[in-house]
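Limitations
The structure tokens in this dataset are predictions for the assembled complex, not deposited experimental models. Users should treat interface geometry with appropriate caution, especially where small molecules or nucleic acid strands are included. An illustrative entry is reproduced here so readers can see what is and is not provided.
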Amino acid sequence: MPEDWGTYRAVGTNKRLLGVIGVATLVLGVAIGLVIGGGGGGGGGGGAGGDLGAIAQARGLTPEDQAHALEQFVPGGKYDEYIMFASGGQSGQVFVIGMPSMRILKMIAVFTPEPWQGYGYGADWGDSILAKGSPPGEDLTWGDTHHPALSETGGDYDGRWLYINDRANGRMAMIDLRDFRTKQILAVPNISTSHGGMFVTPNSEYVHVSSKFPEPWPAGSYADLSQYQEKYRGASAWLKIDPNTGQIDLQNSFEIELPPYSQDLADAGKNGSYGWGFIGSFNTEMATGGINEGGQPLEAGASRNNFDYLHAINWQKAEQVVKAGKYEVMNGIKVIRLQTAIDEGLIYLIPEPKSPHGIDVSPDGDYLVVGGKLDPHVTIYSFKKVQQAIANKDFEGKDPFGINILKFDSVVAGQVEVGAGPLHTQFDSQGHGYTSLFLESAVAKFTLGEDVVKTGEKPFTLVDKIPVHYNIGHLAITEGDTVSPDDKYLVALNKWSIDRYAPVGPLHPQNFQLIDLKNGKGPMEMIADMPIGVGEPHYVQIIKADKLKAWEVYPAGTDALTMQKSQYATELGQERVERRGNTVEVWGTAIRSHFNPDVIRVKQGDRVILHITNAEQTRDATHGFAISNYNVQASLEPGETANFDFVADKAGAFNFYCTEFCSALHLEMSGWLLVEPAAAAAAAP
Amino acid sequence: MPEDWGTYRAVGTNKRLLGVIGVATLVLGVAIGLVIGGGGGGGGGGGAGGDLGAIAQARGLTPEDQAHALEQFVPGGKYDEYIMFASGGQSGQVFVIGMPSMRILKMIAVFTPEPWQGYGYGADWGDSILAKGSPPGEDLTWGDTHHPALSETGGDYDGRWLYINDRANGRMAMIDLRDFRTKQILAVPNISTSHGGMFVTPNSEYVHVSSKFPEPWPAGSYADLSQYQEKYRGASAWLKIDPNTGQIDLQNSFEIELPPYSQDLADAGKNGSYGWGFIGSFNTEMATGGINEGGQPLEAGASRNNFDYLHAINWQKAEQVVKAGKYEVMNGIKVIRLQTAIDEGLIYLIPEPKSPHGIDVSPDGDYLVVGGKLDPHVTIYSFKKVQQAIANKDFEGKDPFGINILKFDSVVAGQVEVGAGPLHTQFDSQGHGYTSLFLESAVAKFTLGEDVVKTGEKPFTLVDKIPVHYNIGHLAITEGDTVSPDDKYLVALNKWSIDRYAPVGPLHPQNFQLIDLKNGKGPMEMIADMPIGVGEPHYVQIIKADKLKAWEVYPAGTDALTMQKSQYATELGQERVERRGNTVEVWGTAIRSHFNPDVIRVKQGDRVILHITNAEQTRDATHGFAISNYNVQASLEPGETANFDFVADKAGAFNFYCTEFCSALHLEMSGWLLVEPAAAAAAAP
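Predicted assembly:
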């Protein structure tokens, strides 16, 4: 074998020798030879800029296609103008998507363990959040994320926190938008399923979560379906946001008991209706299905009535009722019982036609728009009329639980025939509403009342419609749920993609479609399709990208749970291993391209406590930490200190390694967990 | 409350009443009002086709940007030309990405439970695969997917199966490309970590997996690191593919014992080198780190030698050796011991400079291209020369384990100085190699030997280079690992994105970059960036989309595990519930918009067995099945029968529901699992 590697350069045709790159240099590996350039151009050849027509012809692009390409494309290195936070549905996660490019920038692990982020695979950050986030006695490892809600200040998104509910298990989670990591999961007491009842109040006073299906009350008790009306109850939960951490302060939260209807979509009052919340409902019939027991399918039983009830709740007044002590504590939360809520004027019902689904409040706060799945109209209520009707006691009766029902005629401002299957509505700043039409697969644009229409169009009139592909559920406008929507883009969240993408098996992607709103003034224009094959998103909120102030690295030794310096933060050169009885505790570091310590010797059955600090402060210099066959995997961001605590129950020589491609010698960034067998030690002669 | 909902149409300005859409119609809900259109255009307004310049100006696009937009954009409803299968790194999954649009079409759950697909959340498909896929006594719930390998026929991708290895735990998985679902996870015996050693042989005879770090042999024994050279061993596993199912037939598989080096990237011989496999290695120094014990960091200790060894293995000859019975069975697999492999001429070593990483075989099979991380050249070996050297016994000695080492001079065809940190090489059909340069953040294009260069360029010469952003690991060309690459696109798999995207917290997306290869004849051109924020992909393979023949629905009553009709398939009207002692067994169906049965009554502690058939045969008509607070979630594709088996250990009224937005009355598609408390029954007076 050759002794001098350099001499072998004589072989081949390129003989000039740059020289071997020194190992020592690479051991530190800090950005050697890193080319940081601008723009996405570059490359070896002259751009085809002068010959766009030829490219379009070669690729079969029509003039319209070409326009759409130019409207969507974000050149390499340029940033997207908006960031969309999409619920991930049954994936249990949240997706962060750039707009208009519609590129997925990140998946945020929320309710489901996720090893890329090291969430729920041995590091205390994820393990502790997931453990605390299960109801007592349960061990939930997924969720069904439905309705993301960004924190707000003065009714505008402020870019601090994101909340999301778990439709499957009645939980909610809080994500810190400094590091885009989940910081809290809360099993909301007395609620076991929640659908669309999530919103944040305009100054982030509360996150609201309501129940989807009622459950026997108090939570945890049992009652047969035959006692549905008597024993089952829903709840409207007002979860207090800690203004410093964004986490939920259960002590200062409260619930309002609700009838056993299916409370559905909800929205916060704003501007004129500030201090109120609105919750749609269906199944005021209180049907319970039972096809196999001679009953009617729920979808028929729950659709018998022509009207269900929009619940209008005065949360500011409810705060005072709680302050006055008129509550019971049930499963750790203050609960205003339904009779108290009625007596104190906290809750009113408004008839809403026909199998209602979406309820959305206009930016000025006056218009409450309801879509009824089986009604071709949207029904538009005026909050001013609601206030008057309450003041005048303009009731048409009470529901079976004694709640006053406002007279429909007294509170409706208008109805617009939009098409088949209207679900959800968003708004622009020009006085338009945009409603998704599930059955018609379209988005309808209509005008609100004349006091807010800025375009000279006739009020309460359908003014535009655009087909979508296909079966649209929610839709969202840039900054859409705020008091000041941006009128730039609308995203149609279509549930079926059918013929839009090459087949990838019987489970198909859903289809997000990007629509140009032309500043709210022209007809809508469809720009592009985006497949969603990573979950079944239900809803999104879209924020101006420059409102987000994400951290690029952590300050040295940060604990991601507290965002403070960890008591276990370890500096380079301060690494150590301590053994105390059957416990081995390690204070370690990670830096390109090694862990220290890189050999950890324990005995089978020992408790192993690891503290590992990523000693990097360079953006992107993440190190992973995985132990082979021990189901341990963490992502250690620059500056982060993570902690692990496990029993070394399997004997053997287990390689641990960095799971992020961190440096040229990344593959060498590994070490050994040596677990000496208990039996061998005992059996030694 | 109004009795006649229709009369309320008098309110508002749009008074024409389409009429209420009948509930009965919606109960079946089959594609009512579904608009199936072509193209992505449509919309309310005239396209901006005539005014491309104005759009470009408004969006700040340079002429070069505009060209790139047109080169990447795939209009709505048009299909991507190529499909890329990307490993998902520590996510444990595989990503399916369309090209050139770079849109994620699907995530395929492989090693990590994933609830959107209902993989590992109570349905037998995922639960059984994950359970069988853990080594004995372990319960692994993640993997580190590294190197996808598509099945091949005649050296070309055939679109049938996809294989992927688990770097963390020495496992591999098989995905069926009829339904894009994982069908097998295998814990490869005697291997506990594997990195780049995965490839499929040209006629899908074998999947090859080799060890990354050696482990004490036989697997499961214990040896201290002080016995590394003596007791630790690697392995090259040749896993036999069942030609009908694509699954691994362990009985007809074999392994070859390897020295305790770190075997690394690998590739199959093809055409001229068919029947052989090639595995790079590093750490032939057999360093074991131990910084905290006074040792040298592994990245230094493993980089001392100027050469490590490329392992050349004759698998066709090895088959004969196995047939002749010259093996030992170890942990359920036939193992050719190292001495036998040497004696039988199955293995030779070839010196490869300096901390080698990639090894890639050219389409004709003759050129073996090695990138050394610490060497600015690629070294190009000729397989013809390798054969001659073996025939001539042109050895320069033996390694410490007695393996013959071929003389470097005798086997090298050329070296090309490409730049800093060369890792991996891909090929086009014009006689070029394309090598990723990690340290330089670039892709270098060079010529191979004159017998394959079709462009008139000088052989073994650097001909083009393009910067990438940043720290490129692998790269891949369309149909790149076949005997006939398409010279259309190259994807740079960059590990750091740095300034390319808006910050989304300290864990940043990686950056895939799409490069136009100009049919292999012009300079490379950078087209677009794609963020990857869902895992840390390592490698991809890219197949022509029309080679995939995915199923759009399952035949009625299909079991996804067997792809055959399930014995539990249930037709509409044949639903039933049986109780046998403490077991309740349910044969149920799902169809828009209900489950049948929709009320299931059990007692706490009962075993519950559910068989649910999705009775749909319409594309996209997936139903989910989740039980609140029971951690059960499945995705039932049209035609699929899934099975669940659990103990109802928690009492209460648990809502179950469809988790896919399937129809207008999807929210009503739910039922109740009533678990009567054992205590209540016992305690009743």
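Some entries come with short summary sentences. For this one: Chain B has a mean pLDDT of 92.
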